[in-house]
Input
Amino acid sequence: MNCNQLNAFLKDCKATRNGLSKIYVIAFSDLKLSVLGDAEYSEDENGVIISVSIKNQRNFVEIQNANKSASLKELVTVFDNGSVEINQEFSLTLMTFSAKNKMFVNALINTPVVFLNKTRNGEWLILGLDGNLNLKDVDGEISETSNQRTLTFAGTANQLISEISASAAQTLISPPEFIDGNNAFNYTLGMVLKAS
Output
């Protein structure tokens, strides 16, 4: 028997707009971790994430010009024994096959990531906080109609895709302060890449 109390769901009457307007990414290893190995974060009483702990000198970086092609999917499966499996998938398309594009893709291979996405409705979503979201597929094509690489990230999750407050999201994407004053970011190919 499920003892969870169900709360009323009130329909939001404002017009909705599909899709994402902003995409940011960070390596999971750049987050501070709890003793259980998940990212350190806190939620308010409504389940909205209000803070995520990041290591010093790190922040989420923007992947520009990929929002129109981006697709975010979530599948929850409840098995007969009552166990639940949550699978998440995030796809985006990068244009061109330049060396910097290749370098960015290579940096993502075997690197668990966390995505921070702003929807066209203005809501912020975060996924990958359990460290299981990885690049699973790169599909590159150059043809008469295409010059792009489509990247697909997938993994199992401990919870559904979460809403994060706008103020917490802004904190995560603000450039860190560098003691030596050097800018640690390179702008290339419509992407902001963190320098190593």
